[in-house]
């Protein structure tokens, strides 16, 4: 084992010569492994409940009998040339970490009948290791992964042998068949036996591995030499026996391999069959003489016990083979992460699954005649619960899903600071997958990519005919702060990197006689240029972590803090965000800057400093770093709460959504019928998401390209603004161009935070509909470029492979639109749609979402709402700091109370007390103020 020069392509051919995949391919097989891994986590939970323990242990081999880290594997000097592979070179001496264990997932006395196991971690140099896992029975009771997990699930939590056998006899036949059940029970009965000494047992690998160019082998560990000691007794007799032997001298085993001969005599895929053939000794494992009862030895044992052994901790040269081995990668990763409190199972009872299936069929029939938003509120709430489950199961696509099982190296240990608080770039939110949702992670998908989209019709023509604002159409139930707020949030969530137009651009020819200035200092051209996306990775973190205020990388985060990045507070100048030498405001995210964003980001920078002051008053011993990090947690959670229970019910103004969003944050209302329905269909939401554990619904968390599409809400922005003067001066009317870009900060300081909030809070934004795209954004200056955002919205949605509107609807389980008349009854709009699009199936997603008539009270379409329904709760449910670590030990009691009691109006009053009688509370904060 080691680092031999072989190519991945060559290795793929070599191992595929021996393997057969369930479903016909590795990729198809992988989909089943994830489900099996989740089932093993459920096994751990059941074992934990039996033990009455606060935390889970390994799903199997729960009791460590003995562990040490100073073993040595001495390779034979006369090793046959064909077995000299990787680090297994004649005369090599390799350090080894060793763990002996009993096989049961529930710890039992060493006197009980059980299998015994040994795990070796061979250190091959650098960070390369090879984990070898063996048990003292020559075959696996199960032939493949499905049988193994079915067996494990059947015996989970049972400690007595009769209880295990009865459960297997009752539960296995329907999952694996009668013949396999008989074989599994027979193997378990024979393998579960009493043992007097671990030093005298022979341990066998479960399945085969590649042995470099020598091909597949099974390996085993056979006893070679050990001191003789008197018999031991008691519940820990195996440890006592091995400790006595090591106190008297070295304990030695021979590592041997058995080579593949043929599929008949030495099958790779069937681990329940014993291989027939000669064995060859490769190396001698030496466990040196030592005292295992010293404090140092106990510390070593504790460290080894926390290791996550996995047969896939190896190199491609020694790749594990066979279905059971392939499943072990995902299963061992999930089990280890669960044991280390880094990943959590999402158990759905059979009752909940069956009820959802039944109720889902009923609602599917009902919704053909009456959509969910026209049902009575309580029925609509249950309808949404069932629909969200359907979306979670079918509309989360992992763009990085592997096509084959890959070898790995043991993952890094989470740094202490990442366990206790958010990192600047969003890494380590999921402690088992440090890159999940971090800055630079890929955007996910809710629908398969539509890669073959046409570039027709001309997006410039579509924008002119269907998006251009003819006259301002207001949204009377909202205020302009609601428009600023969603941009404030989007800047926290998503940002594609763009190529400058002078480097790589999409060129759109303009009609004869039309010209476009593509840069602020450029000449007019007959081509409109749009900078291409530079990949599909998010330039901010995917988490709800306030990155628009704090930044998405450590360097920027440090620049925004006082005392050269070491202070607890954020830098402000006379209560305003500072500006750099290039007049760009210094904040977490400053693209597309305008006065509404400046007001909100200033407000929450001040809020951060207020939280810091309160924390240091309440807890004088907190240092600046802990104060800063805790304040960031508090402010980020407060922003998430405001968006969930205030902004969303304001823009989706129905009683059903009021209740639904409250359920997301606070849990089910105190109404027995509603609570009963939620308990039966979605018990996860019974007490509110912040009181649950992280759940990624089987797909690593990320925000999606479809999520970006539905949040294209540019029509919210008015072109003209009136700013009041609270001192009695004349109102000031300004165009959007006057309060955006480099002009923003000077005007904002002149008006002031309070009057800016008062003015934006009293005015209405635009309605999210066709013919209402702001003029100012049709010729918007950004980073030296001039862009028509109406055209950009159309082009980018197409190029990112988001399906066209009708396919988008169908993918979200909505009926397809059959005719243009179902989208609009306006004759001019109808004529434009018919002129531009050959058929209803060709309509752009952006156009369809704006054309669709929203449900009563909704600020946007029901189609867009489907993505919102899925992703809004997912942003909370996946986030460790908004679920399992949303607790006083992390946030402090003061921080928890700050979030619990706080809302948008509280933040406004705290920093602008003169607005106390003006700002509305709850969702009214985003409705027009008095």
Automatic annotation (TrEMBL):
Gene3D superfamilies: Catalase core domain (2.40.180.10), Haem peroxidase domain superfamily, animal type (1.10.640.10). Keywords: Dioxygenase, Fatty acid biosynthesis, Fatty acid metabolism, Heme, Iron, Lipid biosynthesis, Lipid metabolism, Metal-binding, Oxidoreductase, Oxylipin biosynthesis, Peroxidase, Plant defense. It comes from the Bacteria. Residues 404-457 are annotated as: Disordered. Residues 58-155 form the Catalase core domain. Signal peptide: none annotated. The keyword Ribosomal protein does not apply. GO terms for molecular function: catalase activity; heme binding; metal ion binding; oxidoreductase activity, acting on single donors with incorporation of molecular oxygen, incorporation of two atoms of oxygen. Its cofactor is Ca(2+). CDD domains: PIOX_like. One of its GO terms (biological process) is fatty acid biosynthetic process. This is Catalase.
